[in-house]
Amino acid sequence: MVNITETVLRDANQSLIATRMPFSEFEPILKTMDKAGYYSLECWGGATFDSCLRYLNEDPWERLRKIKAACPNTKLQMLLRGQNILGYKHYPDDVVRMFVRKSVENGIDIIRIFDALNDVRNIKVAVDETLKCGAHASGTICYTLSPIHNIESYVKLAKEIEALGVQSICIKDMAGIMSPQEGYELVKALKANVSVPIIVHTHSTTGLGFMTLLKCVEAGADVIDTAISCFSGGTSQPATETMVYALRQLGYEVPVDTNVCKEINDFFKPYRNECLKSGQLNPVVMGTQTDALIYQIPGGMLSNLVAQLTAQNKLDKLDEVLLETPRVREDLGYPPLVTPMSQMVGVQATANVLAGERYKNISKEIKSYLKGEYGKAPGEINKELQKKVLGDEEPYSGRYADTLAPQFEEAKKELGDRATCDEDVLSYIAFPTQAEAFFEKRDAKKKNTFTYTIKKMG
What we know:
By secondary structure, the protein is of the alpha/beta class. It has helices at 11-17, 23-26, 30-33, 48-56, 60-70, 93-105, 124-132, 151-162, 180-193, 209-218, 240-249, 258-278, 292-295, 299-311, 318-331, 341-355, 364-370, 383-390, 408-415, 422-430, 432-457, and strands at 3-6, 40-45, 76-80, 110-113, 136-142, 168-172, 198-201, 223-226. The longest helix is centred in the C-terminal third of the chain and has 26 residues, at 432-457. The radius of gyration is 22 Å and the shape is globular.
């Protein structure tokens, strides 16, 4: 049997429209999605939290509760960046544990936990708390290609992740660069060396996605990530309906109702067309980008780069930025390009190109990375770059979170009555500026509603 995780509520819309799909757009179809027979609905985490507060004026926790209420029969899944939670820096352990706990309390069943550097130390606490909360902890291998990444290194990593007690391991191919043969060999090796189910996540960016998923299933993959067809392809995932059709013809059992899938696809088509018309969905991210096999940029990162350069009237510099990206990545010791490393490398590559000089301006995040605050770099860092930032100082080699003081209770006191619950405190810790702006709008709305009610009663 091959199970399907549907990504349209998270990664598909993150990859194609930078996570701008409001809850109101998909609320009417949720009860139908609950009947499709999916293994899980990936609907939270990743960039959804930030986007809710920053762009959509939504409480991400309320969004999750509403999805759960409409989908009681389907497991809800989120993506968690380990010690980074959903932000772009490391948080202390008390915050990580509270975030995991509240995620499960508000409706999450499966937490896919990864670290951008594949540093297992940075997922240990999140995995432990997930298990304590009775949820499914899915440990993650961030897949990338480089002189230091190979089958042996991934098998070693998988064994370390399994030792944490995870119930599954996901191969996360952010940029769609895993070939059918590489996927087959990796899944085969993992199935031979670990005992938990193997999940495969890829993208259609390079055009390899469909073939890679088929070969991974042939090698024994238990679950694959797909997107309903009108939000599939390009920087998104391969199409759900197409994969189900092909797998069934090959003799695999796939417990998904294709009639329900058609209803879901028909529902999302008009919204996809609106996004195309408004420009929110840029046709550039819908095509096949074979150059990604060279620069390894994931879907969400590519759509954000396009948006950033367009906003600065510098879209003509896109090719230069794409060429600069692997150079920056090499200088940083070949980190996988996944959030937050993808954004950090992309921003630095853009800065290098626009300034006309490499590392004339170095972002504070890259400086923190070079200091060892994100974990252990996979490979050797460019010594000249490191010296430019650190001088004679040695980078921190321990688990950086161990140096961080507890933060939750302090933030709770700081917020006072502006926070209505612990979830508000977590929103504030993750994205303070955006959360405070959201709280102000929420309070103003409540005040206006109260005034209107009083006037109506009077």
